[in-house]
């Protein structure tokens, strides 16, 4: 592909990986796939195939073989042919069970089918190696405590083997959920940044509704970039769209909420691109935040805003944060392969009860500030209580209230409509 | 220090770290230390202080501060001022409990005392940060299963804080166990290699008695190096001398056994240096083998022999190896910061029942070979049964038999002499 691309930052490995078969060769590839041993993917595997196919994980060209998996687990990076390192902190691997391993046998290539059996891709020159789940979990999360959402969803039920190889996707992966138009590939994002004449792109990763504290931070970042001399900084508002844990706000609700934030003028549509980052969520703190940053390099962002406790959550079995909340930004600033990305640490915003708006926290008058956590925000929305004026734009807040109302209605009617 | 050093391979960071106070300043340093808040070290901490003081961990200049600890845990490497990476896979940290943390308070410098209270060192510009034991264990060992020897010895009983800083040791650390003359520092080893005119140094790390299979491998490595054109390859036979698990053969017995191997002519004293590597053992497989290799770079070795399942052991709670036995050599070949070291993979030797000697295993006549594991060897020695002729030189074997006999005598008499 010789597509035009934003020249702000080079993709990892120098070229954006594109693993979608060109239209002219798709029929032949499908015919070939029909005859190959078949491996069935879980929903989360399809999300990873999507991530790989569009080059978010460049220079990776498919599910990891063992030499990539080991580098990822031990060094959070991959050696490039040039001798340098690309960051790669999460194992992007495909697990298969004994039956699938037997079915593949010594075949060099296999077909990958989706959860409903539809053919999705071919994986070439495959390598099958043991899936040591305990070691993978310990080295990725820094704990093996039961109750890690991604582990419960995608690792515990998965097979005891990993199959790596070069991926060729039969056609662009779509979800047909009414949100596909938000799913811009790294190439499409680079094209869009070029079209808008961006001279700086700052990415904001999130998996929660946008409140006015987030907006303050994003607008302030733009102001600082203008002060630094950039003429046209563009914000990539980049909600994560893959697997999330059960109590996170679902993607369609979040996308509607983000739309309202732009409609209500809290963020400027002229200088903001809202798009979906198709990756699943690991909740692996300092290890995962590197992935979040690295993928945005490939999408053309040269500035990355890192929050407090990024990709963190409560410890699943102890009453504490799973990660030290400062480790994410520290690890990000040290990570091999991320040297070319400008890391912008999050300034903490809270509700200023005097100014009656979200404002950057000032320790000197800490008694004036109210911290509204995600849990507290959800509790407000669930109980129908209004947050303080100025916490979130009214249109965005209504989306959340309606969502939690719909849940309660569902919850109330489910037992009555259940059949035994 | 401008000491002469072997030019075969540069120490990590370019210069060998030496943290032992020069003789002229020792009295003043001791006087200063007397007045500082004091931290008491466990025996294993003293071993690490020794390792740090002599520069085995160059460029590290003391127990890790948090920015070094995080790089070690996540990337198994440390960023150098030049922008490059030095390998550093094991956290070299000093744990303190709440009481010690309170005692240190805001003092910039602290004194370190040994287990018996004797002053050993000063730690300067200290930083105290949380010791998240679960995360440290998971990321270092890839498991949190109970029963890891180093964890039980040195982490579980240790405090919930880590204290990092720049180390200054009051005088060279000695053990007065009759083996100190074997404890050559990296500088002393480099000097010795120079003195012998070595043009290649190949290191062999071990924590077990040397049998004729090991000797075959070492002699064969020398032969290969000569074939490659080196004129004077020197073997560094480098048993680990710090903490080992209870069922490993103790250091004094191993040193006596190694002496017999040289006396009996199995290894050539002219081209072999036997010295003690003062590090404690983690049994952390692929993570630890990097440390074993990296420390030998600092000691001037430019070739490193890596075994099957290096630094491995059985899983503490499951009936399997804790690590995939091939991962050690694979990870070593990929590890950031070890590019300049030549890795020589171990060739498997076994007892050839036809030739009646240890020989390299030939898969084509596998039925002729007998594998004698460490466990089997210990069982032979314990039960007084002789291993097959040619397994180990008679002098070396006698050392082991005598050791296990002494254990049994002890075991038999202990109950009778015990007082209640």
UniProtKB/TrEMBL annotation, chains A, B:
Q: Does the keyword Membrane apply?
A: no
Give the UniProt subcellular location, in the record's own words: Plastid, Chloroplast
Q: Would you tell me the Gene Ontology cellular component terms?
A: chloroplast
Q: Which CDD domains match?
A: ATPS
GO BP annotations, alphabetical order: sulfate assimilation
Q: Where is the Sulphate adenylyltransferase catalytic domain?
A: 181-402
| Listed pathway(s) | Sulfur metabolism; hydrogen sulfide biosynthesis; sulfite from sulfate: step 1/3
Q: What class of enzyme is it?
A: transferase
This chain's protein is named sulfate adenylyltransferase
């Amino acid at each position: 592909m010789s597509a035009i691309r934003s020249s702000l930052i080079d993709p990892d490995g120098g070229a954006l990986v594109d693993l979608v078969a060109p239209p002219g060769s798709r029929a032949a590839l499908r015919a070939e796939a029909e005859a190959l041993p078949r491996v069935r993917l879980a929903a989360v595997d399809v999300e990873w195939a999507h991530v790989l196919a569009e080059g978010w994980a460049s220079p990776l060209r498919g599910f990891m073989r063992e030499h990539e998996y080991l580098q990822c687990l031990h060094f959070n990076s991959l050696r490039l042919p040039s001798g340098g390192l690309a960051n790669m902190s999460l194992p992007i691997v495909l697990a298969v069970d004994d039956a699938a391993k037997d079915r593949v046998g010594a075949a060099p290539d296999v077909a990958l089918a989706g959860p409903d059996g539809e053919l999705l891709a071919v994986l070439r020159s495959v390598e099958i190696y043991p899936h040591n789940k305990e070691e993978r979990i310990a080295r990725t999360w820094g704990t093996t405590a039961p109750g890690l959402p991604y582990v419960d969803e995608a690792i515990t039920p998965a097979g005891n083997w990993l199959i790596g190889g070069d991926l060729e996707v039969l056609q662009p992966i779509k979800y047909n959920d009414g949100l596909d138009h938000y799913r811009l590939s790294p190439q499409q994002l680079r094209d869009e940044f070029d079209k808008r004449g961006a001279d700086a792109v700052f990415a904001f990763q999130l998996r929660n509704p946008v409140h006015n504290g987030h907006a303050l931070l994003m607008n302030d970042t733009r102001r600082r970039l203008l002060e630094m001399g950039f003429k046209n900084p563009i914000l990539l508002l980049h909600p994560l769209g893959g697997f999330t844990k059960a109590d996170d706000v679902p993607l369609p609700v979040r996308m509607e909420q983000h739309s309202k934030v732009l409609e209500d003028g809290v963020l400027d549509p002229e200088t903001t691109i809202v798009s979906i980052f198709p990756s699943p969520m690991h909740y692996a703190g300092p290890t995962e935040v590197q992935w979040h940053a690295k993928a945005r390099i490939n999408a053309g962002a040269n500035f990355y805003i890192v929050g407090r406790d990024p990709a963190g959550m409560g410890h699943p079995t102890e009453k504490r944060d799973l990660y030290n909340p400062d480790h994410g930004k520290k690890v990000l600033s040290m990570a091999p392969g991320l040297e070319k990305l400008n890391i912008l640490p999050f300034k903490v915003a809270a509700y200023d009860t005097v100014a009656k708006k979200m404002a950057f926290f000032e320790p000197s008058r800490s008694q004036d500030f109210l911290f509204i956590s995600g849990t507290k925000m959800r509790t407000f929305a669930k109980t129908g209580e209004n947050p303080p004026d100025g916490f979130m734009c009214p249109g965005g807040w209504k989306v959340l209230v309606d969502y939690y109302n719909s849940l309660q209605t569902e919850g109330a009617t489910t037992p009555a409509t259940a059949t035994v």
